[in-house]
Amino acid sequence: MVIPRSAKVLTSDSDYALVSVTLFKKCEEEFKVACRERRFTVRDFKFKADDIQASEEEYARLRTELEDQHVNFVKWCETIFGEAVIAQMHLKAVRSFVESVLRYGLPVNFEVAMILPQAKAESRLRAALQEMYGHLGGNWASSSEKDGETTAIPGIAQEDFYPYVFSFLNIQT
Q1: Which end of the chain is more exposed for a tag (fewer CB within 10 A), N or C?
Q2: What pTM was estimated for this model as a whole?
Q3: pLDDT per position as a tens digit, 80-96
């Protein structure tokens, strides 16, 4: 006879389940036979205090090891993130240099600036930059904006064309 409400599913997956059941001693063999008839595997639980203590010690050791690894991982992420940002800024600088040389030729004579516009001021900033550097774009920049047409520029068909070198940097604050 199974003690009511004593059956507890300890763990399960798609094929199997491990269930703990408490029985009276006199019904143990009868329960095992009934389980085997239904193709269940029955195993006796043998309480060992040493195993439980070893399991708790192992859990505590793994917990401290996890905390140590977490601290090391956070330090590593902070270091690598800084290096990744530096690498990204170097790539932006190289791209600006190469694109400036390709657009305006040699000798190299240009200025690089990082501008962070205020909220909703990007269109005014673009207009001011267009006014200052519009003459550098040649026919590509002036004709397409005035006529309302889109002129296909070889090599930059996927991006907007500006008479100045523009590279977007996403900064989340």
Answers
A1: C
A2: 0.53
A3: 999 999 999 999 999 98
